Amino acid sequence: MALRKKELHICPPPNYGLSVFEVDRLTESAGVYGHKVYYGWENNTFRRIESSRELNGYVKGEVGPTKEVNLYLEVSFHEILVQQLGYDPYEVDETENELQNGDGNNNIRDEGQGRCATNNCDNDSNASDETFFSAIDSDYEIGDDADDGILHDNVDKNAEWLGVDNHRKENVVPDPLNETEKVPDSDETEQVPDSESDFESIHESDDKESKLRSRTFDPKHIDNPKLELYMSFTSLKLFKTAVHNYSVKQGRSCKFVKQDRVRVRARCRNSECNWVIYARKLSGDGTIQIRTFEDNHTCGFTYDNPLVHSGWVAKKYCEEFRCNPKLDLEHFRKTVMKENRCSFTKNQTYRSRRKAMKIVQSSEKDQYSKLGVYMHEILRSNPDSTIIMKTVDGFRDSKTGKGRFERLYICFAGVKHDFLTGCRQFIGVDGTFLKGSIGGVLLAAVGVDANNDIFPIAYAAAEGESKDSWCWFFKLLKEDLKIEKDYEWTIISNKQKGLVEACDMIFPNATHRFCVKHLHNNFSSTGFKGEGLRRALWTVAKATTPAQFISRMEAMAEIDIEAAKWFDDKPPSQWSRTYFSTHPKCAMLLNNICECFNSKILDAREKPIIEMFEAIRLYMMQRMQKNRDLAKEK
Length: 634
Prior knowledge:
five-stranded antiparallel beta sheet, elongated, alpha+beta
């Protein structure tokens, strides 16, 4: 029996357990084969290491500042090695002694056949064991110091299972109990040319690397992915999602049998099916690449697909629930079944809606925490603008110490300047509901420019329309527009809840008009219906002199005296041109300027709060630039 002790330097990464099997693989990669026994040097003596647990204890106790551990191994060759190599390694060629003396023919080992290929291959049983090691292990007979460098150079830093430098850089924490792999065939036994070898060389040619890295998955195709061998992904999460969606599209069910921070393996749930896909992280850039892909299913179509569960459906269709929170569930269930060719129960549909709404609400709530950053960015890019946020009085979060959002007001500096220099003293105000899952209203003030076009001035997101919210909005608007002589200003509204009282408090001397269309709606809902009364009301509203006003009111009284009396408590200055103020030079009877603005931001009102504010800002910016360009052309 030939025995020999060698010193092995190991650099275990932090928090990583080594097994005896892994050290065996490491030594074999360095050219040391056969049965090996490991020893540790403790208390000035060798202690035999017989299990992975003892090996881990020794490594943890001996690792020092250099991150190196000295492990000693004893090598013995036996009949198993003879069967593997096909020859007896202890019987040295009789010409071997002549080789050491400089005589004889060259002795070349045919590794492919596992036997000695020489001119004279007669074995000498009297050859020494040390002579044998000189023949087959000559590459390592260069001294202890140089041996460390050779071993370091020959360790593959891309090795999938070894705890070497590259794994330490990526902070990989493998399963110390080796419980990750649950299938009988492991990564070591499945070899794919140029791809899945655990000891793939890092010195491959640049052409090969560029070929393997050339195909990258586009995330925009995530709903209908197409996978192929050597395709790259930017993250493990993206790869797993693509495999999941790919299996659903194929009408099959897969499961992930191995996954950690550097590799993922998935198989068909049918144990008799050959479908398998394996991907791992490449060195350097951290790209995830498919290294094994057997895309031929030998199983049948799966109609009851467990991959189509409520969580997956909620993530895929959450935008539909964002746009329409009251989506018909039966119609939605049929849509899921048709698009994914699978069964989907009513209970799964209910759970999907509940989870989808949570996703929508959580994404919208996250934007409220970013409003402070958004406000700072607005002030940085638009100096002298007004952006004020109000929180709920007396509320502070116990963990963060932040208040709860209540309102946010925005008025840009350029808008204020342009309105005061080129627009009339006429403002339309209105509130419209926000269609997001959190709700609320958008308060807006819109002016009229010299061309009788709309000119948005300011807007605010608030909890609702009330006297308090409108007073807060009007105070900020009055400060921004520097309104001191409010009797010169005219405000038109739809007579919303709390708006009239707030306007009278903040603008006590301003003229307050009511939209005649909304006035007619109230008139009709009281019971005064019919085309005759509708026409009579509009003729009175369009009257321009007191005489016209009186005569037309008498005509309405002839149709219905009670209808004429309904206007007794409504001042004519609020709805008839006869008594409008002449300061604003505007005879509008309708609040169409606000209705027009609301129609332009219809899609924005469905978005989360920051996205909504950005959509409104972009609309105003583009509209002003377009009008500026038209003015230059004329």
